């Protein structure tokens, strides 16, 4: 008789599901796809623009960095205690290759906006904006927020 005929059948190896899941995620199963998506959105203009909110002695100030933006493409809305800044850029380019005569026409539209909530009520009549060297500066007087609470009788 053969020794193989008298051996016990092998037991299946029990696997630990949690160890398998850990190994799966440690092996980078998505091949940096998520990082690529993050990089794409952080490197394109519609991802937003830097905005800074600060106070001076008598005013609140919102500064937005908008290098290269045309003044006519910047839109500001005052909404209660919020400032909404929107920038649109509609760019059209045409070119013709000198040697081949190939003609190219490209159009790109970008839109970015930010909403900043202030700790003050905005006094529209005393709020001003300026745009110098790519920096949009909006400022107004500090006015305490008016409560919108309803009393129960």
TrEMBL record:
Output the superkingdom of the source species: Bacteria
Instruction: Give the SUPFAM superfamilies listed for this entry.
Output: HSP20-like chaperones
Q: Where in the numbering of this chain does the SHSP domain appear?
A: 42-153
In the record, the note on similarity to other proteins reads: Belongs to the small heat shock protein (HSP20) family.
Q: What is this protein called?
A: Molecular chaperone IbpA, HSP20 family
Species this protein is from: Sporolactobacillus nakayamae
């Amino acid at each position: 008789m053969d020794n193989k005929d008298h051996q016990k059948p092998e037991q299946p190896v029990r696997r630990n599901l949690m160890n398998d899941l850990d190994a799966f995620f440690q092996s980078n199963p998505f091949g940096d796809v998520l990082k690529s998506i993050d990089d794409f959105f952080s490197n394109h203009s519609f991802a937003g623009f830097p905005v800074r909110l600060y106070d001076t002695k008598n005013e609140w100030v919102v500064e937005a960095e908008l290098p290269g933006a045309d003044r006519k493409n910047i839109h500001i809305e005052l909404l209660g205690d919020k400032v909404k800044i929107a920038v649109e850029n509609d760019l059209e380019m045409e070119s013709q290759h000198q040697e081949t005569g190939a003609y190219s026409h490209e159009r790109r539209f970008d839109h970015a906006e930010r909403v900043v909530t202030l700790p003050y009520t905005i006094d529209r009549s005393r709020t001003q904006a300026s745009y110098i060297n790519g920096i949009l500066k909006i400022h107004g007087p500090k006015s305490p927020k008016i409560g919108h609470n309803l009393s129960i009788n």
